[in-house]
Amino acid sequence: MLKKLTITALVILIGLFTPALCSADDDKIDLSFSGRYRIRSFSLRNGSNRRLLDPNTLISLNQTGSSNFDERQNYFDTRLRLSFKAARGNNLSLNTQFEIGDITFGGAGGGLGTDGVNIETKHVFLEWTPGDYPLTFRGGLYSEDTSKSIILSEDVAGFRTVYSPFDGNLSLSLDYLKAVDNSRIDLDNDGITDNDFNDRDIWIFKADYNQFRPFTFGGYFVAEIDNSNDTPVAANTERDVYWMGGNVKGQTGILAFDIDGIFAFGDVRNGTNPGSARIEAWLVDARFTLNLPVVGFEFIAAWATGDDPSTTSNEAFPVISSFYAFSNIIFDDFGGFNVTGSNVSGIGHLSLIATTTPYTNLELQGIVTYAVYTGDPRRPTNVNRRNLRSRELGWEVDLNATYTVNENLSFVLKTGVFFPQTGFLTTFDSRGDDPLIEVILGAKFRF
Fold first, then answer.
1. Does the pLDDT of residue 226 top 50, yes or no?
2. How far apart, in whole angstroms, are the C-alpha atoms of residue 342 and residue 325?
3. What is the rounded distance in angstroms from the CA atom of residue 436 to the CA atom of residue 432?
4. What kind and span of H or E run contains 363?
């Protein structure tokens, strides 16, 4: 029923606003087209005897993620995004974006591995600002991002309303998102299709106040509500989760800071726990930036609670679809190895990023990260029992370079080395402890 209501509402929204967009009473229709193309070359060496590639790469290379694989991998991939916008003045616009990628050379289909690639629809949404009112309405498929991509960073289907009074010093927004598709099966044979993650309502409320510049204060509330009524089984986890978070940003001279604190609560149900496990988790992420004449430094300290298997509750910080990413391997932001899945849940880390521009158009960046598990992960039963209590995840050292030819074309070189520690090796049942090494060379073209 909710799925039908959501689809009906989208159709009504398009039906109401399309005539206004197409009419020529006052303003003409402005059409714009843009795109982004990316090509990357990967050279990966995995010394810890386990593949930790990002999910897209795993799928495109037709790999299962088992511990039996070639130690070295070298390959190319590409991605193309095309954006179209039709705007009637400054009040009404239709926005679309399509994607072809991520495509690994030789792994895409027929024609020697280059044909048979589908075009994905990333964004299709209408955005309307009614006259001079500080209101903006959006409906359709668009990108949603909570603070620092901790809880949610994904393309979504939903509606957004933004209210910005007091000359924009206050911003209030409300998103209603729907996570629905048709891949439903009866996992537990009770005659009811199991919805799993396919029948969820997600509500996001954000408030930002910047009257006291240079300081900005923000708060947000996120609710993920499961509407399924089936019997939970091990393969079908159901949960209702709520997040309450606050953020403060500011700058004093050459020092800037950006601090988030989030508390999560709710309950989770599955076949391995027929009852309801209480979720109680929290996260703190603090970032400090020091801008000096020659080099800039960013220090990041974060701690997200991890699960304690000895309790009946669940202390692991929950996320919906996170992209907590700023490094090359532990919190991967560009593909290749990905130790955490770009998810800070159950992880604490200290990171230092140094950025400098020694020559015109050339930016160099060095990153050092130390990470630990904040709880005892539920490790597989066949682990190589080095030290089950160890929580050290590992060290990472990166050196990146970006050369900007012009505003349209840039080249990127990323190099990273991850030194796994006992907690990581035990969690992933690794038989070796050599470092993970990656080199990525890429190019970005905008038009």
1. yes
2. 5
3. 11
4. strand 362-373
Virtual CA dihedral for 270, 271, 272, 276, nearest 10 degrees?
A: 40
Q: Is 168 exposed, middle or buried (0-12, 13-18, 19+ CB in 10 A)?
A: exposed
Q: Cα Rg for the chain, rounded, in angstroms?
A: 23
Number of domains in the chain: 2
CA-closest candidate to residue 371, choices 391, 341, 386 = 391
Amino acid type, 45: R
Asked if residue 147 has pLDDT above 60, the reply is: yes
Residues 445 and 397 in one domain: yes
Instruction: Report the distance separating Cα 71 and Cα 41, nearest Å.
Output: 17
The pLDDT > 70 percentage for the chain reads 72
Determine the Cα angle at 260 with ends 254 and 265, to 5°. Answer: 175
Same domain, 145 and 269: yes
CA angle 396, 399, 405 (to 5 degrees): 150
The backbone torsions φ and ψ at residue 405, rounded to the nearest 5 degrees and listed phi first, read: -70, -50
Q: Cα–Cα distances in Å, from 231 out to 193, 227, 267, 274, 327? A: 9, 12, 15, 9, 40
Q: Give the residue-averaged pLDDT of 102-117.
A: 60
| Distance, CA of 221 to chain centre | 18
Residues 337 and 390 in one domain: yes
Boundaries of domain holding 229: 134-254+263-281
**Looking at the structure, do residues 268 and 375 belong to the same domain, yes or no?**
no
Residue 167, judged by CB atoms within 10 A of its CB (0-12, 13-18, 19+), counts as exposed
Residue 151 and residue 170 in one domain: yes
For the CA atoms of 407, 335, 199, 243, the dihedral, rounded to the nearest 10 degrees, stands at -80
- Measured CA to CA, the distance from residue 210 to residue 278 in angstroms comes to 36
Question: Do residue 334 and residue 423 come from a single domain?
Answer: yes
pLDDT at position 263 over 50: yes
Specify the range with the lowest mean pLDDT, choosing from 292-301, 332-341, 421-430.
Answer: 421-430
Exposure string (b/e) for 391-413, b if CB count within 10 Å is 16 or more? Answer: bbbbbbbbebebebeeeeebebe
Residues 333 and 440 in one domain: yes
Tell me, what's the pLDDT at 3? 46
